[in-house]
Amino acid sequence: MGQPEQRAEGAGPFTTRVTWRLPGGDTAVWESRTARRRGVLAVRPRGAAAVRHTRADPAAIARLSRLNTLAGIAFTLGGALFAAGAAVAEFGSGDATVCASIYFAGGLFFNTGGYVSLLQVINAPRHVAGGEGRLITRRWRWWSYEPMRVDWLSTFVLFLGTLVFAVNLLDSFLKGLSVQQVNRLIWVPDVIGCALFLASGHLAFVEICHGGLCVRRRSLGWWVVAVNQLGSVLFMVSALAAFTRPATGLLVNTDIANWGTLTGALCFSLGGLLQLFEHP
Q1: Comparing C-alpha atoms, which of 118, 160, 126, 124 is closest to residue 143?
Q2: Which are the contacts of 117, defined by CB distance < 8 A and separation ≥ 6?
Q3: Closest by alpha carbon to 230, among 275, 276, 278, 265?
Q4: Using CA atoms, how far apart are residues 88 and 258, in angstroms rounded to an integer?
Q5: H or E segment at 54?
Q6: Residue 277: DSSP 8-state
Q7: CA 143 to chain centroid
Q8: Whole-number Å distance between alpha carbons of 264 and 245
Q9: Residue ranges per domain, the chain?
Q10: Closest Cα to residue 17, out of 37, 41, 38, 39?
Q11: Is the pLDDT of residue 93 over 80?
Q12: How distant is the alpha carbon of residue 218 from its chain centre?
């Protein structure tokens, strides 16, 4: 019979790190992001200073690697296309249909990256608190409902944000809209999507910091979260500047809207590139 968990850490109802004593006296440490991205669990032998890592089975490692690669590539391409759309709006012809088409293509990659990130959480190896100090792999699933897991909630909110952005991007193809319709059909979904991205980033910080905010300059996972959250902030700045004034029919600030989208998209593209290295 396995020993009970010694210590659980996290924030609120969320557990992001668990430490427990194995029967032989070794100490096992499970961390949410490390397990689902790297497929490893840390074990410190009794009386030793060094830590060894117990890996999930080869099939689970291959699964995690494929999903991580797909998500990283999707966010890299999605961010690059969003940046290209913003560049065309700022420096190019400024044709609304051309910009909307580029943004829409980028949005499809964001949708893909969001869902694949959720799949990675759903199908990540789970820890066994007790007996053997190992990770187990469950059967493949396309969906789950686990709102008490911070990693699931973070990636679900992210995916939901990409879907809301899709509404915004589709509505941007509509012609002949009044100022009120533009703000209601295009601007409001944009702001909601940005808010969901910010909420997802905050939950990702909760997961990797085991509670409040932290700075971990040597952690690649922390840099992925930080760069993506900076992108979310810039997207929100862009969205607020893109509000159409009813009195004039003009945006609050076109330059800020375009530059916010461009720089924020580049952050997501960089985050996707960094994610490619955060693999098992």
Answers
A1: 118
A2: 71, 155, 158, 159
A3: 265
A4: 9
A5: strand 52-55
A6: T
A7: 17
A8: 23
A9: 5-55, 58-275
A10: 41
A11: no
A12: 19
Answer for the pair 218, 24: CB distance below 8 angstroms, yes or no: no
- Band of the pLDDT at 2, cuts 50, 70, 90? very low
Report d(CA 55, CA 260) in Å as an integer.
Answer: 41
Whether 5 shows a pLDDT value over 60: the answer reads: no
Instruction: Provide φ and ψ at 17, rounded to 5°.
Output: -150, 135
Instruction: Name which of 30-44, 71-85, 164-178, 264-278 the model is least confident about.
Output: 30-44
pTM score: 0.92
Burial state string for 244-270 with b = 16 or more CB within 10 A and e = fewer than 16: beeeeeebebeebbbbbbbbbbbbbbb
pLDDT tens-digit profile of 25-39? Answer: 778 888 889 988 888
Mean pLDDT of 160-170: 95
- Quick one: how far is CA 179 from the chain centroid? 33
- Does 274 have pLDDT greater than 90? yes
Helix (H/G/I), strand (E/B), else coil: 251: strand
